[in-house]
Amino acid sequence: MAIEVLLVDDHEVVRRGLRELLTDEPDIEVVAEASSADEALAVAMHVEPDVAVVDVRLGETETDGVTLCRELRTRPNPPQCLVLTAFDDEEAMIGAIMAGASGYLLKQVRGQDVVNAVREVAAGRSLLDPLTTARLLGKMRHPTEPDLLAELSERERSVLELIGQGMSNREIAERLFLAEKTVKNYVTSLLGKLGMQRRTQAAAWVARHDAARGD
Length: 215
Fold this sequence. Notes:
Elements: E1 3-8, H1 12-23, E2 28-34, H2 37-44, E3 51-54, H3 65-73, E4 80-85, H4 90-98, E5 103-106, H5 111-122, E6 127-128, H6 130-141, H7 154-164, H8 169-176, H9 180-194, H10 199-213
Parallel strand pairs: 1-2, 1-3, 3-4, 4-5, 5-6
Helix pairs in contact: 2-3, 3-4, 7-9, 7-10, 8-9
């Protein structure tokens, strides 16, 4: 039997292009179209497509494609959802996955990629846009270091910079015209804010931070 598809996009020209693309395939049949989430939910009450190809942004309506996928997946005989969008949005991809979507593709892909994606999700497999997925995985594996310097006062930053240069408390006191005891208090405070226990840790952190900035 042919894979029955519901197209959901607020642009008629996009739906027409997808219909022409998919109906050229002998094993795929477009059984319905919708220009909004509400229309798609109404249509889904009368037809039970195997796959819903859904855009993330659906015009001015409050319900977006991700929410629509979640609603469709709660139906008794839910379609597999394939999100097809022009927006390279990592949050949207995560939201779509959490909503139960089986696929996430950018509209920049080739037509044959869309056809293949429909077949993949119809067969119960998952398919995600490779570039968006790779970038997202990269961020998850190498999370951005929080801006610890934002926690420090201007004077503490100055002390930290000099610690990074290998100066002792006495040398820092002479450079900044402070009492050595005052410098010691600054060092204790900044180490606490940075979650460190020894000044050698702070010196190493400064070196890594400067290297990352290319200093």
